């Protein structure tokens, strides 16, 4: 297996980035097209951040994985736990904040509320054999940013950002000890678009998307693959308010796991997610006519 190549660029020309690092010529890296190499013009010198391009982080072997799924008592999480077992996972920890609601045969049930650090630490202590962490748990409060309940906006971030980060921090050493493994974050098409009555969710899912990219870089040296999943309206409790067309959660989860096995870093589940991603490069006046 090829090792990850971590290329650290000195913050100042000639600065020593530390033992084991390779110093590259700043101009060479800046012209190489890596978006992480930013010209921020601080103190009139160009500063580049760590750039990691990993040539050989191993793809996830779902078949023999020991998976842990958050929010596995219903919705996409329940499908994920079930389909991971069907694909031959050696063990699936189906976690829930109310474990008595997990009704899947063959899984190991653990109590876990991702917004409680103590609960996360207890789950990590109990599941030292995990090789695949699926950060599925999520909420939506329908809060708007300007007039919505600030506690609801905070809860969105507590769950999607801080809860996911707490899980990543607790399980990164476990994944490393078990050979690297993988993390999959259930992000959203809404990571990439704003929408009335879903803007707190948009902010939280955008933060989860950014977290996914940052953690991917940080965990590459320990050979942990980090993937993000992006999907639009899918028929779960999450979307009870919506009476328009929705995707089938079983099909969505099949696409997610196919993407993971195909070693995709951004698993785009449906057309809504593909359109949302494309919108990032569109003019906001075209994409949000109401705000034009
Ligand atoms: N369905 C969609 O259209 C859609 C689209 C894009 C992205 N997503 C994302 O996909 C993920 C799953 O969504 P879903 O549609 O399956 O939602 P869902 O049916 O509402 O299920 C959400 C799950 O997350 C759990 N949960 C919420 N907060 C938690 C916490 N603090 N700790 C532990 N578990 C917690 C819930 O537990 P309780 O039963 O205790 O509430 C439930 O098991 C979410 O991250 C969501 O944002 C969904």
From TrEMBL:
The keyword Oxidoreductase applies. Keywords: Oxidoreductase. It comes from the Bacteria. One of its GO terms (molecular function) is oxidoreductase activity. GO terms for cellular component: cytosol. Belongs to the short-chain dehydrogenases/reductases (SDR) family. This is Short-chain dehydrogenase.
């Amino acid at each position: 297996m090829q090792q990850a190549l971590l290329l650290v660029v000195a913050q100042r020309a000639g600065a020593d980035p530390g033992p084991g690092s390779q110093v590259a010529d700043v101009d060479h890296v800046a012209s190489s097209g890596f978006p992480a190499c930013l010209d921020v013009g601080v103190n009139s010198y160009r500063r580049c951040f760590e750039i990691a391009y990993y040539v050989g982080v191993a793809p996830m072997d779902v078949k023999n994985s020991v998976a842990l799924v958050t929010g596995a008592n219903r919705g996409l999480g329940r499908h994920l736990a079930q389909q991971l077992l069907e694909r031959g996972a050696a063990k699936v920890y189906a976690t829930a904040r109310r474990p008595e609601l997990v009704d899947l045969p063959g899984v190991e049930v653990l109590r876990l509320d991702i917004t409680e650090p103590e609960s996360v630490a207890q789950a990590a202590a109990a599941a030292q054999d995990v090789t695949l962490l699926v950060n599925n748990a999520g909420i939506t409060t329908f809060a708007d940013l300007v007039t919505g309940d600030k506690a609801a906006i905070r809860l969105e971030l507590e769950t999607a950002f801080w809860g996911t980060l707490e899980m990543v921090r607790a399980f990164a050493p476990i994944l490393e000890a078990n050979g690297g493994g993988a993390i999959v974050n259930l992000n959203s098409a809404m990571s990439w678009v704003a929408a009335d009555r879903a803007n707190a969710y948009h902010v939280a899912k955008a933060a989860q998307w950014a977290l996914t990219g940052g953690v991917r870089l940080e965990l590459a040296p320990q050979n942990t693959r980090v993937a993000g999943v992006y999907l639009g309206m899918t028929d779960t409790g999450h979307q009870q308010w919506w009476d328009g067309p929705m995707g089938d959660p079983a099909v969505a989860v099949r696409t997610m796991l196919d993407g993971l096995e195909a070693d995709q870093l951004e698993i785009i589940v449906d057309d809504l997610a593909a359109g949302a991603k494309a919108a990032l490069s569109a003019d906001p006046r075209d994409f949000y006519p109401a705000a034009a």
